[in-house]
Amino acid sequence: MKKHVLLFSILGLITACSGLPKVHPHKTTPPAKLQRDCGQLFPQGKWQFVHSIEAAMPEGQKGMLLGVTRISSVDQTIQTVIMTIEGMVLFDARYDRQLVINRSVRPFDSGDMAGGLIKDIQLIFFRPPGPLVASGTLANGTAACRYQNPGQQVLDIIKHSDHRWELQLYNQGHKKIRTVEMFFSSDEIKPAPLHVPNRLKLTFHGYPGYTLDMSLLEAITLSP
C-alpha cells in the first residue's frame, strides 16, 4: 500500500512539474503596454544578422562558430549560413515554405537537426504565429504574454527586470522544448535595430539537446 502511495505521489509531482505555469492577472504592468512590447520584440521587414556562436552540440561537441542569417518578416523566408571561424561552411539552407539544404556537415547533416535550426530561427526572429491568449504575471512576479501557436504549442514571452526577455516554448503535452534568453542594453522597447538583442542563448531541451550562445556582431536592414 505504501508503495502505491509513493508511486501516485511521484506521478503527481511529475504531472505538476510538466504543466504550464499559471499566468495571473495584471497588478502593476498595464496590459496594453506589455502586450505591445511582447509583439515588438521581433524585427519587422528584411534583415541580416551576423552572430558569433558558442555552440554546445550533441555528442559533447563544442566550438566557436559564425552565423549569418537573413530573414523577411513579410514573407517569412529565411536564409542561414553557419561556418567555422576559419570560414568553412557547415550548414547552408533556405526556407521559403519548404526547406532547401545547400550544404550540411556533421552535426548539421541530419534532417531533424536542420529542421530544428529553422524552427529556432523562426522562434527567435518572427512574431508568434498564434493568437495572444493571456497576459499578466507568473508566480515569481515576472510579466508574461502567452500565445497559442499552431500544433497546440504554447509560447510564453517573459519580461525580466534585468534587461532580459525569455521565450519558453511548450509542446502539445505542455513539456518545455525550447528556451531563448534575450539580453538587451536597456528595457525600453524601440524599433530595430535600436532594440535588437546583444546576446541570445537558445537551448533545445529535446533529444538530441543543444545550446547556442549567440553574440550579435552586426544587424543591417536589407532592401525590400
Structure, briefly:
This protein is α+β, with helices and mostly antiparallel strands and 224 residues long. It has helices spanning 2-18, 31-39, 111-125; strands spanning 46-56, 62-72, 77-84, 89-95, 99-104, 132-137, 143-149, 153-159, 164-170, 176-183, 199-204, 210-221. It has one domain: outer membrane lipoprotein receptor (LolB), chain A (Clam), CATH 2.50.20.
What order do the helices and strands come in, and which of them pair?
Layout lengths: L1 H17 L12 H9 L6 E11 L5 E11 L4 E8 L4 E7 L3 E6 L6 H15 L6 E6 L5 E7 L3 E7 L4 E7 L5 E8 L15 E6 L5 E12 L3
Antiparallel strand pairs: 1-2, 1-12, 2-3, 3-4, 4-5, 6-7, 7-8, 8-9, 9-10, 10-11, 11-12
Uncertain segments: 1-17
SS summary, helix count: 3
How are the strands of the biggest sheet laid out side by side?
5-4-3-2-1-12-11-10-9-8-7-6
Helix and strand string, N-terminal first? Answer: HHEEEEEHEEEEEEE
